[in-house]
Design a protein that fits this description.
The protein has 658 residues and is of the alpha/beta class. 39% of the residues lie in helices and 19% in strands. Strands 7, 8, 9, 10, 11, 12, 13 and 14 form an eight-stranded parallel sheet that branches. Strands 1-2-3-4-5-6 form a six-stranded mixed sheet, sandwiched between helices. A five-stranded parallel sheet has the order 16-17-21-15-22, sandwiched between helices. It comes from Ferriphaselus amnicola.
């Protein structure tokens, strides 16, 4: 893709007229050129012309940051420094939002542009009409050659550049090498959804390594199944597996956006039973649609934006209820992508719900069987894609993937089935059902339907493995895994929530999101001002800005495994309670009832609790702090012995105490 709308050596830029530079910018612009954008470019060109005379290097206008779906106003390569410049033409103040914006652009290059990893990067925020700001050049605490954003006005920019160059010293970037560097982003699911919704290809917003190649292969394999089903008037079911954070949801949204064209009769819908995820994605896309419209001079109403988004991202239960209203009509969509398909309800849970809530007393199908039957109403073709996570069932009545397989073999013999070759792994709990699917007439096992590399953490892909080893009490393996990743992915432990909050704020840069996550069973954290029963809105928690008390940044509201499953933070604080305790005989599982802890004895509920902590510890992309309170000898519900074993176990693995 075109990385910058305009690029040249500084010498050539200074020789060109404003009209020549503006012409190239306009020619490469993706949108209709409005006068405010043209005027802003003219102002930027004039400012840079006035301060670059006599300098050597390269200049880039509108440099692409596809992970964020945005472009940097200007990038300058001068000496050994990459200057990232964000102009606010006509502005008299440096807002905190703009400060974080330029910080985020610099972080994006530092983290995801290969030839920028080891270079000095200096973000500069230019509010053209602001007063003079003090110039203080400092490296951020991570000591990775990223400089704290500097504030400037239009007259001061040259002095800011000089100050940075004096601070850094001698050296010169290889321009050709820098330009040739691969851009290898790992977007959050919210960022990815916004990019895909705005017509980026999945290849544009993912890394170029083996893991991302696998992701693109999986998306292509699903597309081939969809096209084959349409061309041959067949009905097909795909099972896609993946480790936590491997991009299953990303694949699902990619497929939904690619196959949504009415003219090709390829209506598609992304469905999830994860209510918070659906709400957050829909609101994020709607807000982004309004924001992009505003930047282009178009007025988009938020209500209209929300309606448009809901046409291809829906709650699976709303989809199910629509199909209930007319038991014969096929849904408009020919392609249905069910995320976290293992969480669909079993027969008992579905029948109970239908009897109590929907006035269907004789309903006798599990949720998978009913959903397959709904898509089966199409006279010509249909494709269902089941995205399957391992070890993530966290709620009563979730059937696991075996019920989907049982439904196909029992009731839909004519459907073609495409199965990930890794569905046989124990964490997917397909068990006996897989033995039956092997005798199904139209079954194909495909390696391309498995996503084997976590892409959530761009710093260390082995985080999910470490968490599995920790929860499985494989201590030696956990020690080795953490030793290999700790330089890139810090994990620290503490007994003090206050220290954990301070650590999060110190680690995060720009708008990197952080927050506190806890088990939904963690009911005795109230003395630490953590109440899992207190209402919180996950949309506000995940999407609102730093100055909003409802956002995760404020570290007041906490999210549980139900709020965060399928989503990510940059930095997380996992606060442990006595519901899940480490003892000499292994993990001890408890729920709080009335005035005390009750031991959990059912294996199914034990697994839910273990999986809850698995979800909590695999949310952070860059690092996390684990808090295990000290307890209180005067409180029988918070005895120190409930907590000490867990803390000492985590310490034994090698996590440093703060």
């Amino acid at each position: 893709m075109l990385r910058a709308y305009y690029s040249a050596s500084i010498a050539d830029f200074l020789q060109a007229s404003t009209d020549e530079v503006l012409g190239k910018l306009s020619r490469n612009n993706d949108f209709a050129l409005i006068h405010t954008q043209r005027d802003a470019w003219v102002a930027q060109i004039d400012i840079l012309n006035s301060i670059l005379d006599g300098r050597e290097g390269s200049i880039y206008f509108e440099y692409s940051i596809p992970r964020m779906g945005r472009r940097i106003d200007a990038v300058l390569l001068i000496g050994p420094v990459i200057f990232v410049i964000e102009f606010k033409v006509g502005e008299k103040t440096h807002t905190s939002y703009a400060f974080d914006q330029v910080f985020d652009y610099a972080l994006d290059l530092k983290n995801f542009h290969e030839s920028s990893h080891e270079q000095y990067i200096a973000p500069v925020l230019v509010a053209t009409e602001a007063g003079i700001s003090p110039i203080s050049v400092e490296i951020t605490p991570q000591n990775d050659k990223l400089i704290f954003p500097l504030k400037s006005n239009k007259e001061q920019l040259g002095a800011v550049i000089n100050a940075v160059l004096r601070f850094v010293g001698e050296g010169k970037l290889d321009v050709a090498e820098w330009e040739a560097g691969r851009y290898c982003p790992t977007p959050t699911i919210i960022e990815a959804a916004m990019a895909l919704y705005n017509n980026h290809a999945v290849a544009d917003i993912t890394r170029s390594d083996a893991g991302a190649t696998n992701l693109r292969l999986t998306s292509s394999a699903i597309s081939e199944v969809i096209q084959r089903s349409k061309e041959r008037s067949q009905k097909a079911l795909c099972f896609v597996t993946g480790v936590p954070g491997a991009g299953k949801t990303l694949v699902g949204i990619d497929v939904a956006t690619k196959h949504s064209e009415a003219k090709d009769d390829l209506y598609s819908v992304y469905l999830s039973g994860n209510g918070p995820l659906v709400k957050i994605l829909c609101e994020a896309l709607a807000r982004d649609k309004v924001s992009r419209g505003k930047s282009r001079g178009d007025r988009v109403k938020i209500g209209e934006a929300r309606s448009a988004v809901k046409s291809f991202i829906q709650n699976v239960h709303h989809f199910r209820d629509d199909c209930l209203q007319d038991s014969s009509a096929a849904p408009i969509e020919h392609v249905a992508i069910f995320d976290e398909a293992q969480r669909a309800w079993n027969l008992e849970q579905t029948s109970s719900f239908m009897r109590r809530k929907k006035n269907h007393p004789n309903f006798n199908q599990s949720e998978p069987e009913f959903l397959i039957s709904c898509m089966g109403r199409h006279k010509d073709w249909a494709t269902i894609v089941c995205l399957v996570g391992g070890g993530q069932e966290i709620n009563t009545g979730e059937a696991g993937i075996g019920e989907w397989i049982n439904s196909i073999t029992r009731s839909f013999p004519d459907w073609h089935v495409y199965v990930s070759s890794r569905l046989t792994d124990s964490e997917y709990q397909a068990g006996e059902a897989l033995k039956r699917i092997e005798s199904h007439a139209n079954v194909n096992f495909l390696d391309e339907l498995h996503l084997g590399v976590s892409m959530r953490s761009f710093r260390a892909e082995d985080v999910s493995l470490l968490v599995k080893q920790l929860l499985d009490i494989d201590i030696d393996s956990a020690k080795r895994t953490y030793h290999n990743i700790k330089a890139r992915y810090p994990i620290v432990i503490t007994r003090d929530v206050g220290k954990a909050k301070a650590w999060l704020k110190h680690q995060a840069r720009g708008s990197e999101r952080y927050g506190i996550v806890v088990s939904s069973q963690a009911e005795r954290l109230k003395p630490h001002a953590i109440d899992v029963k207190s209402p919180m809105d996950p949309v506000n928690w995940f999407l609102n800005e730093k100055d909003d008390v409802r956002s995760s940044y404020y570290l007041e509201d906490v999210a549980t495994e139900f709020h965060v499953q399928g989503l990510e933070l940059d930095w997380s604080c996992v606060t442990w309670d006595a519901d899940f305790r480490y003892t000499k005989s292994g993990w001890s599982h408890h729920s709080f009832r009335g005035n005390g802890w009750n031991r959990i004895n059912k294996d199914e509920r034990k697994q839910y609790l273990k999986n809850a902590y698995r979800v909590l510890m695999t949310r952070a992309r860059q690092g996390m702090v684990l808090v295990v309170p000290s307890g209180d000898i005067e409180d029988h519900t918070r005895s120190p012995q409930y907590y000490d074993g867990t803390f000492n176990y985590l310490k034994e693995i090698g996590f440093a105490e703060i």
